[in-house]
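Lab meeting prep.
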Amino acid sequence: MPTDIPPNSPLARKLFSVATFAQAQRQPGFRKNLTGTAPMQNAAERKLKGQTTPGLPFIRVTDLAKTAGNSVTVDLFNIIQGKPIMGDRKVAGKGMSLTSSTQEITINQARAMVDPGGRMTQQRTLHNLRTLAQANLSGYASRLEDQLCLVHSGGSRGYDNGADWVVPLASDPDFNDIVVNTVNPPTPNRRVFAGNATTVSGLATTDQLSLSDIDRIRAQIDEMVFPMQPIEIPGDPANQENPLYCLYVTSRQWHWLQTNTGAGNWRTFLSNAYERSRGFQVPLFMGTPGMWNGILIKKLFRPIRFPAGSLVQEYNASMVSTGVAAAVDVDRGLLFGAQALAMVYGRHQQSDYFYSWNEEMTDHGNTIEISIAMMAGKSKLRFKDVTGTVTDNGVMTVDSYAPAP
């Protein structure tokens, strides 16, 4: 970028809008590992909707990229049911009903700005300021998008409040505006608890995560009437024969999982992941994951955490959200199949792109302020099955007792 391009020129706005979005999407994080690649040219319907690979947990949707509007609808169709019609019996008038659920996802503008300061403006060229601002703003945007995906997938913000959180606690007056779409608690048919517990208030100090819990979770998935669709990774030769799911656990849950596992099983746990990924490289298998019973297990370094006595939002029998107190320190793991969450992007009028870059001179020309704006919204995908039961489409929560080691 030449240094003689003036502040907020159309060229700078266009180039830095695109570059900042690309940089934010590429940065390492929980979201990047779960998002599919862009569709192939011959995938006509996905290309029309601007969706990424549907076999991975997070789907990037850009339906609004070239049209005005602040929401997009997602249709989820149920499988058909009924007996086959045999022989020469007439089929006329005996068609099976095609039912679906429609979910609307809203987008909104989020902005962030850096102020390099007057002295910095005098000491550095505009080009350097743009580079510094882009690095900081893309890092900030990446953390924001990562955290929004985590909160929506997990159905809660939790109470962890480390310095790197940019999504505030749910008690913050701006929380609902920042998350854009309602953060829905996990549906009862997509909740699992470690040990012998069946509720978050029933978790005890003996209910730490173990490999036996992983076995039980896998058995539950396999027996579901409407199981989660497994993750399909391009190039994975075992996609059809050995369906894959991915469980993200907090650092505390990982610690207690390892503590509760013998040395022999732990070696098998680690080698299973290596064997499954041998021959192809994808972000989901990077790091040091383990695998047990077809479930890939990875660390989630930013936890959804509920200290003892804190309220956990869940649904009662009437599917009304209500707060239940955690009896012990609880961490929440997230088990993903395909199509768990939609990340919807819309066109920003200033840049004609998902992100918009803006520069303004202030203080009588002494200071330049640089900002980005993003037009986006995140939402967990849910559907109503043929019985009318609301169900999270591609994610389950795994709550366990997880004290600090």
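Slide two material, second protein:
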Amino acid sequence: MQIDKFPFLYIYKHYSGNEIYFAIDRLVQGKCTGGIRVREGIEPGELLDNARLMSKKLAVANIPCGGAKLGVNLKNPREKDTLLSDFGRRISSLLSRNIFIPGVDMSSNPDDVKTLRGCYSGKYYRLTEEINSSFYTAYGVYVYLKIIKKRFFPDSGKLNLAMEGCGKVGSSLLGLLCNDKNFRLKYISDKSGAFKFRDKNDIDFVLKEKSREVWKDLSEILPEKIGSPKDLKYLDIDILIPGAVPEFILPEDIDRIKARAIIPNSNHPFHFEAIPGLKKNNIIFIPEYLPNCAGVFGALLGNLGFNPFYVRYVINKHFNLVFDFIYKEAVSPENIYETAERLIEAKLNTPLWKGGLNNNPVHRLLSRLSDYFNLFPRNIRRRFVTTWYLPHSAMWSWKGTDIDSFKI
């Protein structure tokens, strides 16, 4: 497959009637990565937007790789394996050289990735059910909740939360929050409605049901329904966590939102016209790619063989460094969102992150070394991450002249 310009979109129409949309935002050091999203009715524009968002997540995590996304418009579920296998052969030149590194996303699993890659799985590929990217995405949101609490509400006692969505990420976040004395999750929603938690027994019951192979809607689990999912936005709470519906925060919602902060758990949670209103009303809110990049981060570190305890340590340390850097530039809380956007766009426009077809010999060498990084002894890899990566993880540019602009 030839790729001559970016962003790149390829539409593959299979004889079965199913379609695959393959979007690449950019190549960085000759590589791109992104998950396989499976859903009937998926649109090509959605894939391009999410590939761009993936580039932002990778840039925040300081992982020199471009964003991509593969969408399966699956009309006949029985044809999924054949469809992925045939498309894998179609893009074999990208898979065999690790130019495109696929991962798990909405309604896909490690077996789907292995089917796509086929004989190109390679010795560096270590996709197992043990690496739970949904948990790490939830952990990223949890770290940002703690950051916001410590930075802006240190004397407020226990903060009341409302969370939209209770899928894999939402239920993982629920498990993290239920034992934290700094937060009280009072409300939760899914497609069946918004519900109130009466006590910890309700939370335990939801977690138990969400651990089963077949999930129930919240309407079958919780008795106290308070309205539709959109009603969650207007409750008297401290922090709102959008986690499912794109553009959950609309311009007409602004004056009815009572939350003091919004920490997103979903992609594209804000309608672009809602941004000025949130800022005007002094609501603290951050771009979704800041907490959400933890899913990418955790999957990468897990694939490199690091244990979950160390992965959480790196994510926690990295996120605190990055937030301190952004807040230092923002000066005030209402400017955090716009400052993060400005910084990430500036980073994506530096020579390395602009990407391309990897004609730079230094970039080719670094890319080749990264392929073999997980073959180094674990103590060497860990020493590299702790002593080199983390001290520079808040840097928004790889220019040597910028190294002293941030001090730990």
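Talking points for slide two:
The radius of gyration is 21 Å.
The CA atoms of residues 175 and 207 lie 7 Å apart.
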